[in-house]
Structures are given as structure tokens and as C-alpha cells.
Design brief:
The chain is of the alpha+beta class and 298 residues long. The protein folds into two domains: 122 residues; 161 residues, Immunoglobulin-like (Sandwich). The chain has four helices and twelve strands; from the N terminus they run ααβββββαβαββββββ. A hairpin with a 5-residue loop joins strand 1 and strand 2. The longest helix is centred in the first third of the chain and has 120 residues. The chain is rod-shaped and about 200 Å long. The N and C termini lie far apart (159 Å).
């Protein structure tokens, strides 16, 4: 081997060593880079886990919020359902109480009807009501020079019926007397007889001396109730007695009226009301029955 070939061989070896060192150095750098990459990947994975954990925590917080909201709504729903049930029970109890009250009222009405029927059966009512102290005989009290045929009188009702709610209402009318005979008639005493007796009530321009009317009321009135113990007993039988407030004489052809009276009624105990009228002239010992009567059926 000559010197030139030996030099080339040494250079080749030197270059080979150089490249080996470079290769080794590159391998070290590659290993270091791989370690760095692995570390970066680990760091990246760690950061991703933190973000994932944060997301999971947010989701968990939202789930807790949703759960609390659902529990609150459930409590409200249960409270509403309980309140509705309580309200339903209260309404049911109210309806039952109303029905019980209606039944009690019906029982009271039936008891009143029974008492009314018993009262009617216990009272021995005559065909015509009797005047206080009873009527005297014709010969004892007939006007001098007159006979029964000389006395003649007609009495009649003129009325209308006004209904309000539930078939309650009142009767408005007048009662007129006309002397159709030849002899005068004085001081008529009128008996209004009611059936049933409990319906005996009349309003109008009729005074009651028990109430101590004023002088003005007395001056404007023509009729008054007969207020005494006998009249009170008569009212229990369903009779209201009315007489003139002042001395009154009906001459032949004359008329006198009890105007604008009102009789209230209620459909409770009976299904009808009847009002009859009887007129007594005590001085003349003469009596009549009205030509008509009031009758209202419900």
C-alpha cells in the first residue's frame, strides 16, 4: 500500500468515526426528543384530564340543580294534590251540610203541617164564626118598626194575586159592603176567616189601638182591629175581626169599603189559602156572608 492509499484509508476511517459520533449524537438527541415528546404528551393528557374533570364537575353541579328543581316541583305537585283533596273534602262536607239543612227544614215543615192539622182537628169550628157574646134573638134587637126582610146587604171581594220568588207573594184587594135593602145598617163588624188558620195576617189602613196610634193616623183611618181577649182567641182559629173606627151608618144604596189591604203568604205549610168574609150588624141583629171569597192554590 503506497502512501496515497494509506492516506485515503485513514480519511475513510476518520470519516466513519465522525459519522458514528454524529449518528450516536443524533440518537441521543432523538431519545431526548422522544422523552420530551412523551413528557409533553403526558402534560397534554394531564391538562385534558383537568378540563374533563372541570366539565364533569359542571355537569354534576347542573345535575344537582336539576335534581333540586325536580324535588321542589314534586313537593309543589304533592302540596297541590293534597290541597285539591282537602278542597274536595271541604266541598263535599259543605254539600252534605246543605243537604242536612234542607232535610231539617223539610222535617220542620212536616212537623208544622202535622201541628196545623192537629190544631184544625182540635178546634171545633162552626159553619159561621160567632160574634162576641153571640147574636141575640131577632125580637130582642131588631130595629123598631122593621122586619128581617127590610135588611139586605151585599159584601164582596175585589182582589189580585201577586207572586214573587218561590211562589211566595201577597194578595192585594178591597172588600166592599153595599146596603141593598130599605132600612139603614149601622157599624158593620167584619170577620175575615183564613184557612189555614196560621195564614191569618192582613196589612193595610187598619189601626190597632194597642199600638197607640197618633191623632193624624186616627183621622186618616176608617177601620180598626178588635183588640181584646176574645179577638185574640178568634185569631187562633184563623179569624181577624175589623170594625169601623167611628160611628158608621149605611143608608139605602150606600157603600163602604175596606180598601187596599194586603195579605202576605208563603208556600211552606199548606198548598192553598182561602179567605172568607162574614159581616155582623149587631144593632140590627143581621148577618151576611160575602158573595165571593179569596182562593189561591200553589
Amino acid at each position: 500500500m503506497n502512501a496515497q492509499e494509506k492516506l485515503s484509508y485513514e480519511r475513510l476511517i476518520s470519516r466513519t468515526e465522525y459519522y458514528k459520533e454524529k449518528a450516536l449524537d443524533l440518537e441521543k438527541k432523538l431519545l431526548f426528543a422522544e422523552e420530551q415528546i412523551e413528557k409533553l404528551e403526558n402534560d397534554l393528557n394531564t391538562n385534558g384530564n383537568i378540563k374533563t374533570l372541570e366539565l364533569k364537575e359542571k355537569e354534576l353541579a347542573q345535575l344537582k340543580t336539576d335534581l333540586e328543581d325536580l324535588q321542589y316541583k314534586l313537593r309543589l305537585s304533592q302540596a297541590d294534590e293534597l290541597e285539591k283533596r282537602i278542597k274536595g273534602y271541604e266541598d263535599l262536607l259543605g254539600k252534605i251540610q246543605i243537604e242536612l239543612n234542607e232535610k231539617d227544614q223539610q222535617i220542620d215543615l212536616y212537623q208544622q203541617r202535622v201541628k196545623s192539622m192537629e190544631k184544625r182537628m182540635s178546634i171545633n169550628r162552626m159553619l159561621e164564626p160567632s160574634f162576641e157574646g153571640s147574636m141575640q134573638t131577632a125580637g130582642d134587637n131588631t130595629a123598631a118598626g122593621a122586619v128581617k126582610e127590610d135588611f139586605r146587604c151585599t159584601g164582596y171581594f175585589d182582589y189580585s194575586v201577586i207572586f214573587t220568588e218561590e211562589k211566595n207573594g201577597f194578595i192585594r184587594g178591597s172588600f166592599t159592603l153595599e146596603n141593598t135593602g130599605v132600612q139603614p145598617l149601622s157599624n158593620p163588624h167584619i170577620c175575615f176567616r183564613f184557612l189555614p188558620a196560621e195564614a191569618a195576617a192582613m196589612k193595610g189602613k187598619i189601626l190597632s189601638m194597642i199600638s197607640n196610634p197618633s191623632a193624624e193616623e186616627i183621622g186618616q183611618s176608617q177601620w180598626m182591629y178588635m183588640d181584646n181577649d176574645w179577638a185574640a182567641e178568634a185569631k187562633d182559629r184563623g179569624e181577624l175581626w175589623v170594625c169601623p173606627l167611628k160611628e158608621t151608618v149605611l143608608l139605602q144604596g150606600a157603600r163602604i169599603s175596606l180598601n187596599d189591604f194586603q195579605i202576605p203568604f208563603k208556600k211552606q205549610i199548606d198548598n192553598h189559602i182561602t179567605v172568607e168574609a162574614f159581616v155582623y150588624f149587631h144593632k140590627e141583629n143581621y148577618k151576611i156572608r160575602a158573595a165571593n171569597h179569596i182562593a189561591v192554590n200553589f
